[in-house]
Amino acid sequence: MGMDSTLAVQLLIQGVLLGGVYGLIAIGLSLIFGVMGIINFAHGQMMVMGMYISYWIFVLLGIDPYISLVAVAAAIFILGWLIQYTVVNRILDYPEAMQVLPLVSIGLILENAALMLWGPDHRSPQTALGLDSMWVGPIMVDTSRLIAFVLAIIITFLIFIFLKKSNLGKCIRAASDNRTGAVLVGIDVDRIYNMSFAIGAATTGAAGCLLVPLLPISPHIGHDFTLTAFIVVILGGMGNLLGALVGGVILGVAE
Amino acid sequence: MLNVRDINVFYGDMQALRGISLEVKKGEVVSVIGSNGAGKSTLLRAISGILRARNGTISFNDRNITNAHSAGIVAAGISHVPEGRQVFPNMTVKENLEMGAQFPHMKKAATATIEEVYSFFPRLKERLGQNAGTLSGGEQQMLAMGRGLMSLPQLMMLDEPSLGLAPLLVSTIFEIIEKINQLGTSILLIEQNVFQSLKISHRGYVLENGTIALSGTGEALLENPHIRKTYLGL
Fold it and tell me: Considering B152, B183, B202, which residue would you say is the last residue of a domain?
């Protein structure tokens, strides 16, 4: 294998690995859209919140982002639940153009909260595996990218199982498929909406943890990721979760 | 069992129901007939809590359920098989049925109830792993009724179950409604197929412009000259 093709394969693999994480971010956005028809314009900012929580847990307690992932996902789950409960449930029946502003505003509030609390500096924690890499034949792979990819795939898989098999997951699918039908069988659709938004948020929070070792954190990277997630979801089809994963990989490679 | 007293229902400023009173007794099949836009579906939506009644009362087994939460009304024993079926298209037939059993006592009985549903609608059993969106209109109607039975209703409200179905299937659906009734479930039926529905009904109400214009036993209504002329074209 020549030098050029080795480099090409290496870039391709790096792209695919990062794309898995993009996919995970986008799955949250896609789930929220699929269930409620709402585009979460604060999605990237929620992810940044997850990154900061993960960062501080690492700096203050020395716990690696891969370990704190569950706690961070839980924290962003609660954040998502509160946002849905206080704001999003009130705007569901509004025209789409009017749903944009409240969510963009939430994004701005989160971004500026991060700015106030932690300043504008870029922060890159030196996690245990942060700069490790390994060689697979002539190809070099960043260990943290590989772990991020594997965990992203596992979480995606767990979400699929949850939606397919669990009772709550089935109720979420039912509410997404046909709201009237769901109300009439006695599903508490408002509760399902809260849960869906919270799960979508938790997913992006978890993705944030996976990115902590990979790129510097600052309050302003949030909207880039909102855009990334949005592009991925468009690539994969709105509301199509598997499509989001594929779209993530495509975008990862294209970058 | 079901007692509707003087309810008024509005869509925004437009009044859809004006002082409607109606009753379904235990074991009865009751039809509400009327032309498009007379307010038939609105009546069912108000009973099942999707629409609010501005005033008047709805009670079920002597409990006031006026403007209660839809889930509470399902739990109380009323199931609403809506117009247009409203099945879950991307879920399988079996999952659709399972979704009909939302509360603990329904879930406990679910396996047995599903078998009962299959005995009414053998077609559903053949298609249990198929997505509901791929079913024919008639099969979706069967599925919507089957899903409605999963909540072990004491009263089943059916909104236009024969709409858009082939004539042979229409007769089948009406036979099954009678069968469900004979097994102890009361039925409140809304239909444009006036002849078939009055034939299987103990009593009926005629809804015109949001008010009850006529009521009586199924037989009496079938012989009423106004109904014969306006709804049966005889």
Answer: B152
* Predicted interface score ipTM higher than 0.90: yes
Sites in chain B below the pLDDT cut of 50: none
Assess whether B72 and B161 both reside in one domain: yes
Domain total for chain B?
2
- The amino acid occupying position A82 is L
Of B79, B88, B95, the CB nearest to A181: B88
Q: Is the pLDDT of residue A130 over 70?
A: no
CATH of the domain at B71: 3.40.50.300
The overall longest dimension of chain A from CA atoms, in Å, is: 64
Q: Mind telling me how many Å the CA of A27 is from chain B's nearest CA?
A: 18
Q: Are residues B63 and B30 in the same domain?
A: yes
Interface test with B, best of A160, A184, A188 (most B CBs within 10 A): A184
Of B71, B90, B95, the CB nearest to A186: B71
Give the mean pLDDT of chain A: 90
Task: Examine the fold and report which residue of B104, B135, B152 is the final residue of a domain before the chain moves on.
Answer: B152
What's the rounded Cα separation, in Å, for the pair B46 and A98? 29
Q: Which domain holds residue B21?
A: 1-77+157-234
Q: What is the mean pLDDT of residues A240-247?
A: 84
Of residues B146 and A240, the one with the higher pLDDT is B146
Mean pLDDT of the region A169-183: 95
Structure-token pair, residue A53: 């929580």
The answer to whether the CB atoms of B91 and A187 lie below 8 A apart is: no
Q: Is B77 left (phi over 0), alpha (psi -120 to 50) or beta?
A: left
Q: Count other C-beta atoms under 10 Å from residue A227's C-beta.
A: 13
